[in-house]
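Box 4.2: Ligand-aware structure prediction
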Amino acid sequence: MKTGGKPNILLGVSGGIAAYKACELVRRLRDAGCEVRVVMTRAATAFVTPLTFQALSGQPVRMDLLDAEAESGMDHIALARWADRVVIAPASANLMARLAAGMADDLLTTLCLATEAPLLLAPAMNRVMWAHPATRANTERLLTRGVRMVGPESGSQACGEEGAGRMAEPASILHALLGPGSGSLSGRRVLITAGPTHEPIDPVRFVGNRSSGRMGVALATAARDAGAEVCLVHGPLAVEPPAGVEAVPVETAEAMRVAVLERLDDRDLFIAAAAVADYRPREVAGQKLKKDAPTLTLELIRNPDILAEVASRRPRPFVVGFAAETTDLRGNALAKLARKGLDLIAANDVSAGQGIGRPTNALSVFWQGGERLFPEQPKADLARALIDLITERMERSGADPSTT
Ligand code: PMT
């Protein structure tokens, strides 16, 4: 590391519309005091010119492995050694496939094989390509090899579709690359609940709610990007759980409770973002109920409160609850904070369908003696801001969170 202790960053740019966001990343890295050298794939040059990156990085941009002139300056092996960290943003499906296969058929993939520096990928691609089993397998393979990932995020895509595949924002990539200890939750073990629970009435019907799981999935992604080892216990989701996270699918509140309690030991942080059904039908019909009678009465019984049970344990992790309210957000959230014995509560207004089932949300966060408001924004951004706040509160709480 040469520049005032800041790492030398080798930024790889592969072909994708998100390449324009890599320009902002170079600027931010330089603002942070890093020296940056950019290597582009040929496809990337169709989106942004090498001259742009040269102007932003203040260094010549490399594209070719067999460039005699460039090799006489800093050859590719020297470049691989020079890098303290390698980040590829955007990482296209093709580039990830070539990296997973260990190929070295251009300068960027060759550098990835030739360097001992840690590698961070910011995948960006169409949502169907991201969800494709081949890409999932390549992702798992790379993660197993120790490659780190930031994003992708869910939202509207350049191709006009909606889903997971958008490149993480430069701020998130910077955070994942340089963040405190290379991640504010580095070394922490985090357990998160997400999504609705479905409480069966008969083999085809259930009692449920509108939760999509987006908020919990965004939190799992943000916690993973902050360096945590994350387990996500989730009900039926409308979105894919993030790669690099242990995902435990469940259906009912009781199954969620069992899955959470089985995985609670040695956790530093528990975040309950799931919309757990408060009641379940007392009887579950073995056969589909017939619609013979004009009315049908279901008797509901209380489900266990998973959050309150976790918070009452000793030792226990730092415990963060959510509150979904339609009236008196502040009053109800503060009452839940005290009644359930939580460290922090994130309250959202779900009247008129806001926050629940949608890609955006706003949060009012409360803890003993403090509060912070986060205005409406994409859940991915909100999750990052909330993880930052939680980290700050965990540190302030002083004591080892595992014995709180
Ligand atoms: O999933 P999305 O579509 O992205 O929507 C996000 C969300 C609105 C569901 C989320 O932000 C949220 O508010 N989650 C909590 C919803 C909820 O059940 O709130 P509550 O006020 O009823 O419950 C309070 C807390 O106790 C929550 O942390 C809940 O997870 C927990 N709880 C509730 C009941 C129960 N039996 N067990 C629990 O652990």
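In the box above, the bound molecule is PMT. The first strand starts at residue 9 and ends at 13.
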